[in-house]
Amino acid sequence: MNVAAATGRLTLDAIGEIGRIANFAARGGTAWFLGPFYWRAFGGALARIGYASLPVVGLTAIFTGAALALNIYEGALFNVEAFLPQILGVSIVRELGPVLAALMVAGRCSSAMAAEIGTMRVTEQIDALSTLSVDPFKYLIAPRILATTLALPLLVLIADIIGVYGGYLVSVYALGFEPTHYVTNLVDFLSVDDVTSGLLKAAVFGFLISVMGCYYGYKSRGGAGGVGSATRTAVVAAAVSVLASNYLMTSLLVEV
Q1: What is the DSSP letter of 222?
Q2: H/E element holding 254?
Q3: How far apart are CA 70 and CA 248, in angstroms?
Q4: For residue 204, how far is the Cα from the chain centroid?
Q5: CA dihedral (190, 192, 194, 199) positive or negative
Q6: What is the pLDDT of residues 97-139, one digit of tens each?
Q7: pTM listed for this prediction
Q8: Domain spans, the chain
Q9: Inter-residue contact 79 to 181 (CB < 8 Å)
């Protein structure tokens, strides 16, 4: 009975936490519709999340594309010059580009959001905003959610290009492929649906990453230890939500 009670308690706590996160996401995601909209806060968040994440996303993409090209070449049995760019392009555009870019942004930005907002919470700066009649959701939460949701598809598009280029470098200069054949096979095989599905995933990932970072930072308590715990939980929750939502969206987008 103790095991059953503990299991039931954990289940109810998990359901309650999901409900609180959903309520937070709905409030934060719709706060900017009601105005006022803080453009400076939005611009700063967009620069920190989008532009500043380009180096880590680009490095991840180019090495992923290069390693993937080597693995495909090693496993191919015949006609590898045609199959390699096709498999590499689809893998990066539909799955690896969105997921790896989202995980990099989750580790970099979700933790930063949780730390910033958590520090403001424990030092009572958020209470001071409320005292000055400034809605924390409009000033702190909504700009970050909107900036991450818009920035991640752009980062993923850049990551797709860099990842494919990484595979091109390895294929042409290390494996001896003909450059024209690589580009032709890639362009002929990829479709608009492949690209749009990856960008759609990226927008959802960006929303989830920002919600997790803001939520756990906003609810943090207990000084520096509470901020550290909130930061750690935000990164883990963002990564898990990215992987789980990726499976759900893939199951909806892929025709079985």
Answers
A1: S
A2: none
A3: 29
A4: 8
A5: positive
A6: 999 999 999 998 999 999 999 999 888 888 888 888 888 888 8
A7: 0.90
A8: 17-27+41-253
A9: no
